Amino acid sequence: MSKYDNKVTKEQAAYIIFRMLPESNFEKINSISSIPDVDRNNAYRNQILKLYNAGIISGEDKYGLFNPEKNITRAEIAAIISNVIVPSQRKKVSLVPYTDVQSISLNYTEHKLYVNESFTLVATTLPEDASYKNVVWSSSNPQIATVSKNGEVKAFSRGTAVITAKEVMGEITASCTVTVDQWKKMSYSWKFNGSQWTHSLSIAMSSYEKYRAVDREKIRHNYAEYVKRKSDDKFMASVANSMKKAADEKGYTKLELANLIISFVQSLDYIYDKTSTGYDDYAKYPIETLYDRGGDCEDTSILLVSILRELGYNVVLLDLPSHVAVGIQISGVSGTYYFNTKKQDIKYYYVETTGEGWKIGQVPPKHKGESVKIIYLD
After folding, report:
1. DSSP readout, 194-256?
2. What is the Cα–Cα distance from 157 to 115, expressed in whole angstroms?
3. Is the pLDDT reported for residue 344 higher than 90?
4. Which pLDDT band, with edges at 50, 70 and 90, does 1 fall under?
5. What is the C-alpha to C-alpha distance for residues 113 and 127, in angstroms, rounded to an integer?
6. Are residues 108 and 157 in the same domain?
7. Which end of the chain is less enclosed by CB atoms within 10 A, N or C?
8. Are residues 336 and 210 in the same domain?
9. How close are the terminal C-alpha atoms of the chain, in Å?
10. Alpha carbon 132 to chain centroid distance?
11. Residue 123: domain span
């Protein structure tokens, strides 16, 4: 069923007008063989060219731009009809040859950002003398990231979107793959030296999921691997440095800073592996323990040494028959310590990470006298 109230595009109007009269009414007065935005595959190309060559249509600029898919206005249709009826109004024109775009490049081919962040893509078209250098922007997934007519990309939700710049007159394109991540904002509160302390940090969900997905079978009891993995060094350094900054503001010594960090880790919940991971034996990477707000003995011990190492402390993991703790080389303390088997002049004082209030050198009664294997982290 025909829809008589539909709007008409400029290319459709050109076709209708040309078909209304015999072709003899469209005497050729111009020599135009191509129009910038009317390609050879356009179904109405022949009729549009005949109207150009008859002087009935001359285009919107010196190159003869037509905008074929744009809806035609009443003023435009009136002008065309007037030129059809009054041949003396028809125009002889000589269009300026236009230069096609040969390539488009973007300032990014891939980019990562977080929800609610934005950045701007810049398109460079070549050659420099191309007649139409503007591009049209589009997003493959606007629910993930949108792009404005000026190339500004805004992130809305986690996922991947491909942002494409396309030349206005052809099919040449350039794309940037945008990966959107999301921060998980964490806040912790604990007591130290009679004061209430708080610490906030943000964890990238992709980082948490990456560590969560690591196959534990090959590294299940290789606790050093959880500490020495380089990919989280930057994150752990930010955690350590923010705590050091807070301690510096209080004028804390190296020992007081260590005790502050120890008290933070001790304040985290003791969570059995089965509860937090669904597995009976599952060591966590530091990011996982922070995200879960706790873990069992090996999890909190791995977290503590990871933070302290970033601040230059000489620390080790202490592997007991059914327990894991931390050893730290530090002056000004007393209590239980273990000699470095490589350098007998180095003492590692015992640090308990599960439960609050344990001092450096204090061993829980149930673990006193147990054999200890030192896990070195250098």
Report:
1. TEEEEEEEEEEHHHHHHHHTS--TTTTT-HHHHHH-GGGHHHHHHHHHHHHHHHHHTT--HHH
2. 6
3. no
4. very low
5. 31
6. yes
7. N
8. yes
9. 79
10. 32
11. 103-181
Q: What is the widest separation between alpha-carbon atoms in the chain? A: 112
Q: Are residues 167 and 216 in the same domain?
A: no
Which residue from 341, 343, 342, 367 is spatially nearest to 353, judged by alpha carbons? 367
Global pTM value: 0.74
CA 164 remoteness from chain centre: 17
Tell me whether residue 339 is in a domain.
yes
Mean pLDDT of 188-197: 95
Residues 252 and 350 in one domain: yes
Which of 149, 164, 181 is the last residue in one of the domains?
181
* Number of alpha carbons in the 13 Å side-chain half-sphere of residue 232: 27
Q: Do the domain assignments include residue 340?
A: yes
In a domain, 349, yes or no: yes
pLDDT tens profile 68-106: 999 999 999 999 999 999 999 999 999 998 888 999 999
DSSP string of 54-66, one letter each residue: TTS---SSTT---
